[in-house]
Amino acid sequence: MATRRQVEESVSYLRGRLPLAPEIGLVLGSGLGPIADELEDAVHIPYGDIPHFRTSTAPDHAGRLVCGMLAGKRVLCMQGRLHGYEGWTPDEIAYPVYVMKALGVRALVLTNASGGINTSFSVGDFMLIEDHINMTGKSPLTGPNDNGLGTRFPDMTFAYAPELREKADAAAEECRVALHHGVYCGVNGPQFETPAEIRMFRAQGADAVGMSTVFEVIAAAHCGLPVAAVAMITNMAAGVLMQPLSGAEVNEIAAQRGPEFRRFVTALVGKI
After folding, report:
1. Please, where are the H alpha helices in 83-238?
2. 31 pLDDT exceeds 80?
3. Which residue in 65, 66, 160, 193 could disulfide with 36, CB within 3.0 to 4.6 Å?
C-alpha cells in the first residue's frame, strides 16, 4: 500500500505546479469528465507527470488533475479515475486520495456512472451513496500499514459523511433535482454483471452497481477525509429490463444528463 514517503514526493511535485492550495477534492467517473471544464483559471497536470501516479486508460477518462475555482471553492479535480479492470491494484487506484489529503483537501466528492439495481430507479436518475458493499474481495489497505497515513483498522461506519450527505440533499433541493439515497455495490469488471449476480446484489441490499469508488472511499476513511459520493444511473443493471448493456449507453446517458448533474455537483461543492 501507499507510504508517507511516496505521498510526500507526489505532493512536493504538485505544490510547485498548482495555482492554489486546494480545499475540495472531486473525482469524476465515466462520462462525467466535462465537469472539470467548469473550473475557472484551471491548470491541467497529466497523471503520468506526477510521481507514483498511474495513468488512466478507460474510455473518456482524460487522466489528469485539474485545479481551479468552482462555486467559490478551491478545487482539485481528478478528470478520470483508475479502475481494477485496467490492471491497477487497489492501492494504486486509491493513492491519489492520500495525495489530496496531504495537499490540504478537507472533503472529497466522488461521482460515478452506475447500473440501477433498485427497480424503482430509472435511467438518468441520481443516487446519493449512503453505504457500499465491496464485492471485489480486495482492499487498498492490504499489506504493511504506514501509520503516518492512517490507522491499521479504520472504522467504516461513517465513511460516507452524514454532514456531507445533508449538504447534498440541500444542493439537490436548491437545484430542484430528484436525489435517491441508496447502497452502492462495487465490483471489479470490466464485464457487466449477470442477471443472477444482480438478483444476488439486490437481495443483499444494493441499489446500484459499478466498477469504482469503493477503494477511494476506504482510503479516505483510512486517512480521515470526509466523503460525499453520488452515482448517476446510466443504465439499468442486467436483467432489470432484459436488454443488452453497452459502454456506449453509459456515456450517452451521462452526456444527456450532464448539464443537470454538473449544476448539482457545483451546488454541492459550494455548500462544503
Report:
1. 90-102, 162-175, 195-204, 214-223
2. no
3. 66
**HSE on the CB side for 204, CA within 13 Å?**
18
State pLDDT tens for residues 119-155: 999 999 999 999 999 999 999 999 999 999 999 999 9
State how far the Cα of 87 lies from the Cα of 170, in Å rounded to an integer: 38
Instruction: Answer for the pair 250, 235: CB distance below 8 angstroms, yes or no.
Output: yes
CB burial of 109-143 (b: ≥16 within 10 Å; e: otherwise) equals bbbbbbbbbbeebebbbbbbbbbbbbbbebbbbee
Using the structure block, give the residue that is written with the C-alpha cell 492501492.
91
Determine contact, residues 233/114, Cβ cutoff 8 Å: yes
Beta-bridge partner residues of 126: 179, 232
Cell 452515482 -> residue: 231
Decide: 168 and 228 in contact? Cβ < 8 Å.
Answer: yes
**Distance (Å, whole) CA 272 – CA 108:** 10
Cα 36 from Cα 57, distance rounded (Å): 18
Residues with Cβ within 8 Å of 244's Cβ and at least 6 positions away in sequence, in order, are: none
